[in-house]
Amino acid sequence: MEPETKTFHRHPAVKISIKELEEGVYVEERDQNPNYLLTAAQKKIFRVNVLAIIVHKELRGTVNNLLVDDGTGKIMVRFFEENKNLLDMEVGEVVLVLGRVREYQKEKYILPEIIKKTNSLWLKVRAEELQIKTLPLESPLPERKSPAAEIKTEKDEIVIEEEEIEGNSSSFPFQKIIQLKTDLDKREGVFIEELLEKSPLEKTEELLEKMLENGNIFQNLPGRVRVL
């Protein structure tokens, strides 16, 4: 008799506001089942994707904290091991945090799996996605158009019109892929091969792999991807 093999299922990192996260209920499961956050809409969230600005930094030995604010509330991002990336992160900078919600003495915090600095313009994009009306006051945004590329269809060909971008942003190619996927998506996901065929960007395959790794997109069906 062949031994039973267990498959590991990695839950997608869900984009969520800090307010919704704080209003949710932290549920501790028994045995080997993972703990999760139960939102007010009764949605189970195992991993979160939060975009916010650092408003406080506290380094104390092996336990380090970053207090972050997304305009709807504040929450602590807590590290229990030394992380060299924290040395380059300062108050006022915007960070993307992917991780799991934890709770200690009724206080929720995020245990990060991935944390990285990003362009402050993405705060406005995330605010539009989650319908956040107030952005953090510590991070004023310049008056400009959304960093997303504008996409239109002419004679079944995808035409991408690039906006002028002030400074360099390594995240901009990711947004092009997301916009292209949105244009092609018929609510069932988009075939990866179709994205590779229609994308005007170089190294599209590498970008898709990075976006899957960061939790920006996920495979809802074999060979198909959707935006989280």
Write the layout of secondary structure elements.
Elements: E1 13-15, H1 18-23, E2 25-27, E3 36-38, E4 44-45, E5 47-60, E6 63-69, E7 74-79, E8 94-104, E9 107-118, H2 121-130, E10 150-154, E11 157-161, H3 172-184, E12 190-191, H4 192-198, H5 204-214, E13 217-221, E14 224-227
Parallel strand pairs: 1-5, 7-9
Antiparallel strand pairs: 2-3, 3-4, 5-6, 5-8, 6-7, 8-9, 10-11, 12-14, 13-14
Task: Characterise this structure.
The protein is an alpha+beta fold and 228 residues long. The chain folds into 2 domains: 13-120, Beta Barrel (OB fold (Dihydrolipoamide Acetyltransferase, E2P)), CATH 2.40.50.140; 145-227, no CATH class. The chain has 5 helices and 14 strands. The chain has a 5-stranded mixed barrel with strand order 5-6-7-9-8. Strands 2-3-4 form a 3-stranded antiparallel sheet. β6 (63-69) and β7 (74-79) form a beta hairpin. The termini are far apart.
Mean pLDDT comes to: 76
- The 3D shape can be described as globular
In quaternary terms, these chains amount to single chain
Low-confidence stretches: 138-171
CATH class of the largest domain: Mainly Beta
Number of strands: 14
Tell me the strand percentage band: 35-45%
CATH topology of the largest domain: OB fold (Dihydrolipoamide Acetyltransferase, E2P)
CATH homologous superfamily heading of the largest domain:
Nucleic acid-binding proteins
Order of helices and strands: EHEEEEEEEEHEEHEHHEE
N-end to C-end Cα span: 40 Å
Attribute tags:
OB fold (Dihydrolipoamide Acetyltransferase, E2P); three-stranded antiparallel sheet; 2 domains; 14 strands; alpha+beta; 228 residues; five-stranded mixed β-barrel
